[in-house]
Amino acid sequence: MREHSSRWQSLEQIHQSVIRCSQCPRLVDHRQRVAESKKREFRESSYWGKPVPGFGDPDAHMLIVGLAPAAHGANRTGRMFTGDSSGNWLYEALHRFGFANQAESVSATDGLELSDCYVTAAARCAPPQNKPTSGELAACRPYLDAELALLQSICLVVPLGRIAYESWLKASGWWRELAPRHRPPFVHGAEAVLPDGTVMLCSYHPSRQNTNTGRLTVAMWHAVFRRARRIIDDA
Fold this sequence. Notes:
Blueprint: H1 11-20, H2 25-37, E1 55-56, E2 62-66, H3 74-77, H4 85-96, E3 117-121, H5 134-150, E4 156-159, H6 162-172, H7 174-177, E5 191-193, E6 199-201, H8 208-211, H9 218-234
Parallel strand pairs: 2-3, 2-4, 4-6
Antiparallel strand pairs: 1-3, 5-6
Helix pairs in contact: 5-6
């Protein structure tokens, strides 16, 4: 959409800056306390306990934007959507529709590879109650902005949840450029073409809050990625 200015020249540079980040005291305290106290199920595990960088194919045509690392998921494993139920939903669907080489994502060293897909998030640290503040999201947004500058082949964005939707629109510049009435709506399964041709395909987040209540069903979820596959194949 617009030119992005960035001090980072590669995704690896962004990843290393993310990992070293300590901008938000509340998030630093929370992620470290969780890593020290652990969950009983993972008491023998060594937790990552740091901000989590993006993951995937640098030449991807599809960008998936999540909310934030889960306390005992990516905050434990060090890879986006890895080691929790949301990741189980995501990578099963990506494998089913040809974007991943396997359906499971249990650790950062399990051999998972993504094809034509890059996964990132609005916030890079696990927040208390899965709720980053507006200030924390703003502090993290330059990382997403920098990723967009380097992921030059993206033509489809799948935001998972309203916060991811707003974060991508702000990082890409469309939140400012488009009047509120002209912004694409956030509705599960809603598809919109931005003025530069980028397609936004919205989805509810595959959190337990959504999947256990039936707000998001497997059929609804698969429909999003079936459509994503067709968009990519037709691009």
